[in-house]
Amino acid sequence: MSEVTIVLKDSITGREVEMELPDYEPIRDLLPAITHALGIEYAEQRQLQNRSQAYDYLETDTLKSRGTRNQDICILKYETIQG
């Protein structure tokens, strides 16, 4: 089990953070930590996209299964539902 450091960007605000994440956890389990690191309180629909390698992660993917490399730039795309 290892970790990979990626550069996360918020698709709406452009905010950017560097984050070290376990490469063996499914993306669905990483999304809450990613959302929090970017300062997003709530997002209904969330999807992580690897901009460096030009693909979207499925919720069941892991960083390792998709070959994510250190310093890859990943974009969080999301929708908020307001009541």
Number of helices: 1
Q: Would you give the CATH topology?
A: Ubiquitin-like (UB roll)
Alpha-beta classification: mainly beta
Distance between the termini: 41 Å
**Helix and strand pattern:** EEHEEE
CATH architecture: Roll
- The name of the CATH superfamily reads Phosphatidylinositol 3-kinase Catalytic Subunit, Chain A, domain 1
Number of domains: 1
Rg (C-alpha, Å): 12 Å
What does it look like?
There is one protein chain. By secondary structure, the chain is mainly β. The mean pLDDT is 93. The radius of gyration is 12 Å and the shape is globular. It has a five-stranded mixed beta sheet with strand order 2-1-5-3-4, covered by helices on one side. The chain has one helix and five strands. It has a single domain, classed as Phosphatidylinositol 3-kinase Catalytic Subunit, Chain A, domain 1 (Ubiquitin-like (UB roll), Roll).
In brief:
The chain is mainly β and 83 residues long. It is built from 1 helix and 5 strands, in the order ββαβββ.
Give short descriptive properties of this protein.
mainly beta; Ubiquitin-like (UB roll); 5-stranded mixed sheet; about 15% helix; globular
Produce the secondary structure layout.
Elements: E1 3-10, E2 16-22, H1 27-37, E3 45-50, E4 55-56, E5 73-79
Parallel strand pairs: 1-5
Antiparallel strand pairs: 1-2, 3-4, 3-5
